Request: fold
Amino acid sequence: MVNNNTTNLTPPRVPLVDPTTGLITREWYRFFLNLYTTTGTTAVDADLLLMGPAATNNDELLNLFNQVQSADQTASQLAVLQNEIQSLAVAPTMPEVQALVYGAFRRTDAATATAINTAQTVTFQYQDVAKGIEWVSGTPTRIYVYSPGVYNFQFSAEMTKSSANLGYAWIWPAINGVDVPNSASRVSFQGSNSDLIAAWNWFLTMSAGDYFELKWAVDDLNTTLVYDATTAFAPAIPSVILTANRVSL
Reply:
């Protein structure tokens, strides 16, 4: 027989199902839990069940127990999911890491334009460093990039003019053989043996496989790119230096 003092039989006025949740009420749950604890894993006599509130059958009891077990499992799964979400919230976002891309090139010979007011392309002779930006053998005028992005191209050109009249030189970039719009600058020379260093930079958007060229033109063939040899107190002066690096991710 079941000890009514330990099972805490629920008065009939307590509903079997909680209308707000659709699940078994807490009082009935405790009654069935005590009943299970008292009987253990042995078979339950049907007469024992009749001692509880009326209008209950085995199928309904099984359904109610399944609901309770399902609710417990759902609560456990929600707790695990909540912990995982909290862990993601506090975990730092891993930054995107991309390899550095750069190159440096120079020309050490003098260069003279072949015609006035005509575009010339600088031919480089040395590739000092190259990682993702380089020339290809046989095309020393073209500096190729192998990943898309925004690139910073910087140059310096040692220039001189030997004639006495006023003269000009223009310098600009080209991508894939096409002049970059609104990119040229002009420098002037006044008097013979006028020297200057032209130096500036461009931010250019490049696609993988594009190539860069440094263009120049003069209105006087006496205006040249000049190379100065090493002196006792200073290293040699290349006629042109070009450096490039990707500045976007």
Remarks:
- The first strand starts at residue 102 and ends at 107.
- The first helix runs from residue 4 to 7.
- The chain has a mean pLDDT of 82.
